[in-house]
Specification:
single chain; about 425 residues; mainly beta; Methylamine Dehydrogenase, Chain H; Immunoglobulin-like; five-stranded mixed beta sheet; four-stranded antiparallel beta sheet; 36 strands; about 45% strand; globular; disordered N terminus
Length: about 425
């Protein structure tokens, strides 16, 4: 029974209906109304002075939003910053070092911050250093992600370099020659509860590190997509991954996989990109082309340019800033600041479906107002039953169902509702 309880507590909202809503008060910064250097934003990161560093396809912007002060850096007009290219791909603030690491398509630079103002008119008191970690050769290529944890973890298109894990304090190199299934590292994060590091790869599965590397691949696990765009830990120590084709994957603390996609849940798309978990253990997920998804209070909300005040459906990065504001970096429309999201349900789905009991043994009842079809999926995303329902109460025989969690998807023409129920381990059949 432990598995079912932890599973539902962590991600029960994934079965709820996706509704539109207003985002509330937003501010858009682009090249037309601000000094932002470029509208295609790849990465964003706050430093300890609450300055927002913005890595774009054409230079680096540093934004002091409190006083609307901008500083822009590129390889031509500000040569002292040592940018080898204007394409900024990753940013990571190392609090203990007072240092910002900047990943590009041609290696890493770092900026040591003395706490003084940063200007693009002169080098100033800070120190810009080129070719950080160049002794580990992947650090000289396309940097996809950076993470600081008592040393820099750098993920590139040529492998993973980890500072201080190598012999005698040197860099540790991980790639296909050392057991990885891919050299292309997409994301790195750490569980603050237990120090486990999770690493996403392009076509190489999910990698975790807990004093040793462990790989979850299609040949040795129930992972459904070997490309992992992003990874996050929730407050229950589950690893949540986003994929380009299989939707949202959850690796529970006990090692079981649970999958949600556009077939077995109300996710609007299987092509998910970035994910963060807020202080309330809610999820914010960006998509490749379908806007922003937010989970709160057991409900998923989908923000797009069609149903909200978002300026772009392609969102490349997101982070929380001071006052719990959400910041988004878009693909064509610049920077978006969301002050206080308004959590309204928006459109009424106009669907009535009652499923009972929520914990069942040999039968389950589905009460509908009109004729509908129903599909029932288990926690692994596998279809276990499909039937046509008549108006009124329908009693389904579940004696052959195995113990576990189930999602009941009821379809009414072009609308559908999703309910959840559990068959406990103690059930007899």
């Amino acid at each position: 029974m432990y598995y079912c309880v932890s599973f539902f507590f962590a991600i029960s909202a994934l079965s709820s209906s996706l509704l539109s809503q207003n985002l509330g008060e937003i501010t858009i910064y682009n090249t037309n109304n601000s000094e932002l250097t470029y509208n295609q934003i790849n990465t964003i990161e706050f430093d300890s002075e609450n300055r927002l560093w913005i890595g774009t396809e054409n230079g680096l912007s540093i934004f002091e939003y409190q006083n609307n002060n901008w500083a822009n850096f590129d390889s031509t007009s500000t040569p002292w910053c040592y940018l080898p290219t204007n394409t900024i791909t990753a940013l990571e603030w190392a609090e203990g070092l007072s240092m910002m690491f900047v990943g590009t398509t041609n290696g890493i630079i770092d900026y040591w911050d003395p706490g003084a103002p940063i200007t693009d008119e002169s080098p100033g008191p800070g120190s810009w250093c080129p070719a950080f970690g160049a002794s580990c050769y992947p650090n000289n290529s396309i940097i996809n992600c950076l993470f600081y944890n008592n040393g820099v973890w750098a993920g590139s298109s040529d492998g993973l370099c980890v500072q201080y894990l190598g012999p005698e304090g040197d860099w540790l190199l991980q790639n296909t020659e050392t057991g990885f299934f891919s050299n292309n590292i997409t994301s790195i994060t750490k569980n603050l509860n237990n120090d486990i590091v999770a690493i996403g790869t392009m076509n190489g599965g999910l990698v975790t590190y807990d004093n040793e590397f462990n790989i979850y691949y299609s040949s040795n696990s129930n992972i459904l997509d070997n490309t992992v765009f992003d990874v996050a830990f929730d407050q229950n120590n589950n690893i949540i991954i986003t994929t380009p084709q299989a939707g949202l994957g959850v690796l529970t603390e006990n090692g079981s996989w649970v999958w949600f996609n556009s077939i077995n849940s109300t996710l609007p798309t299987n092509s998910l990109k970035k994910i963060i978990v807020d202080n309330n253990n809610n999820l914010w997920i960006t998509t490749l082309e379908n806007g922003l998804i937010h989970y709160k209070d057991n409900m998923f909300y989908n923000y797009t340019i069609e149903n909200s005040n978002l300026p772009d459906n392609k969102i490349n990065c997101l982070t929380f800033g001071p006052n719990n504001c959400l910041w988004l970096g878009t693909d064509t429309a610049g920077l978006v600041k969301i002050d206080t999201p308004i959590m309204s349900n928006g459109e009424n789905m106009g669907i009535y479906t009652k499923v009972f009991p929520s914990t069942f043994n040999t039968k389950i009842n589905i009460d509908v107002l009109e004729a509908a079809s129903v599909e029932i999926y288990n926690q692994y995303g596998l279809l276990v039953d499909k039937q046509i329902l008549s108006a009124g109460n329908n009693c389904l025989n579940t004696s052959n169902y195995k113990s576990g969690a189930y999602f009941i998807i009821t379809q009414y023409n072009n609308k559908r509702s999703v309910n959840k129920a559990v068959k406990p381990i103690s059930a007899r059949f």
